[in-house]
Amino acid sequence: MPGEADSLPPQMNSKSAIFFMRLKILVSAVIITAFFMSVAIGTLFFLPLQNDMGNEAAVFGIETGSPLPLIAQRLESESFISNKYVFRFGVQLFGNAGRLKAGEFRIPTRSSMYCIMQVLTEGQAVLHSVTIPEGLSNIQIFNLLSYSPLLEGDITRTPSEGSLLPETYYFPRGSSRDALIMQMEKAMRQTLDQLWEKRAPNLPLKSQEEAVVLASIVEKETGIAAERSLVASVFINRLNKNMRLQSDPTIIYGLKKGEVLGRPIRKSEIKKPTAHNTYVIRGLPPTPIANPGRLALAATLNPAKTEYLYFVANGTGGHVFAKTLAAHNKNVKNWRRMR
């Protein structure tokens, strides 16, 4: 009838049915393929035994700013993972592409990619250590740190002499030298605060700064732990009597400002005027002559109760102490005979 839509020819109905059938088959194939690919990728990502690095964990390092493709490539080339693309896909799927941390990480043997991702995003970086010996000057500590290949950056901080605590410090590879120096300064402040609160009464030390100055002299005078409180007592007794400290290490610091002298002190240098030479000045030098350790600080703030005013080397690495100048001169003669 006029105005009614003409019905489609049978041939077109047949072609449409075939088209939609083929489309359904294609879509189904894509879905099935995607499903199985997802299962395969997921299996690879979560499957353990991805690496076989022996019985112990292996270390993998990531440099600052490394992109995910480079990290995945290195993991594959170093046999931590079997497929870099699967790792990249999994990391991106979990939203961790920008969360992989710089540093060195211990990856357990036979780890899955998922486990490796967790280690690189949540794990604790491998820590290295540096030991700062007691009695080094700032210059010597800076030289020690500058030669470490595990640290980065120039030393731009200028801490005061005696403000760095000699200790063993732990840090991840790539830490800045300035950051480690800040850690040493903080450790010294905390240690000094603790020991200052427990100091002996009536010490001739007006401040923590003066305690560090004297402790640095004690540190340089003896390396024997059992002697520190005795050496400290000598200097405390001398300060109480307004006697010059007459410490040889202060001569050296006045001459070299923290660098090694490399030879015996000359007779002409004993009375050479410098700000630190305690054969010339009375009282304490204006600054520490080194960075004292915890034991030297503790000995200085809690010295042995003695009447000693003198000490000299005993020829075997230690010292012999005396209350009077006559006894001291006798000890000096004995020491000279042993030289």
From TrEMBL:
Enzyme class: lyase
Major place of residence: membrane
Catalytic activity: a peptidoglycan chain = a peptidoglycan chain with N-acetyl-1,6-anhydromuramyl-[peptide] at the reducing end + a peptidoglycan chain with N-acetylglucosamine at the non-reducing end
Residues under site feature: Important for catalytic activity: 221
Annotated compartments: Cell inner membrane
GO cellular component terms attached to this protein's record: plasma membrane
Domain of life: Bacteria
Keyword match ATP-binding: no
TM regions (residue ranges): 25-47
GO-annotated biological processes: cell wall organization; peptidoglycan biosynthetic process
Annotated InterPro entries: MLTG-like (IPR003770)
Membrane topology label: Single-pass membrane protein
Keywords assigned by UniProt, alphabetized: Cell inner membrane, Cell membrane, Cell wall biogenesis/degradation, Lyase, Membrane, Transmembrane, Transmembrane helix
One GO molecular-function entry: lytic endotransglycosylase activity
Enzyme Commission identifier(s): 4.2.2.29
Function summary: Functions as a peptidoglycan terminase that cleaves nascent peptidoglycan strands endolytically to terminate their elongation.
Family affiliation: Belongs to the transglycosylase MltG family.
Protein name: Endolytic murein transglycosylase
Phylogenetic placement of the source organism: Bacteria, Pseudomonadati, Pseudomonadota, Alphaproteobacteria, PS1 clade
Gene expressing this chain: mltG
